[in-house]
Specification:
single chain
Length: about 130
């Protein structure tokens, strides 16, 4: 998940909805749903440019089925993102709350140990006496 990707066509500021990949060995252009990650040898296209795609003479266009509506993040995607953020911050993954139980609020965590007080991503260190 990330920021909204724009169409790769120059001067186009529309959001990308499809990814175009060339298979040079087979003289084929493959147009399918927007790839999960931006790849260096693929082109993201908006709906207008994906619909009006033309290829060189002798090439074939393989159009994969496009979803009617873009898939939004599901609960598993959001949990995986939360775990990844915690892991990157060096915090252990919080236990998942039991049905009907509220999760602990991150602001209620105990401060860090003897080296100083922890506030958000900053750490206050005391001067040695």
């Amino acid at each position: 998940m990330g920021a909204i990707r724009l169409c790769s066509r120059s001067a186009c500021r529309n959001s990308a909805v499809a990814t175009l990949t060339y298979v040079y060995a087979d003289s084929t252009a493959v147009l399918g749903p927007l790839a999960t990650y931006a790849e260096p040898h693929c082109y993201d296209l908006c709906e207008q440019h994906a619909g009006s795609l033309t290829v060189p003479r002798g090439w074939e266009v393989l159009r994969l089925a496009m979803p009617a509506t873009p898939a939004g993040p599901g609960p598993d995607d959001l949990l995986a993102l939360a775990h990844a953020v915690r892991e990157a911050a060096g915090k252990p993954a919080a236990p998942e709350p039991v049905q009907g139980q509220r999760a602990a609020h991150p602001a209620l965590e105990a401060p860090a140990g003897p080296e100083g007080t922890r506030r958000g991503h900053l750490r206050v260190l005391r001067e040695p006496s």
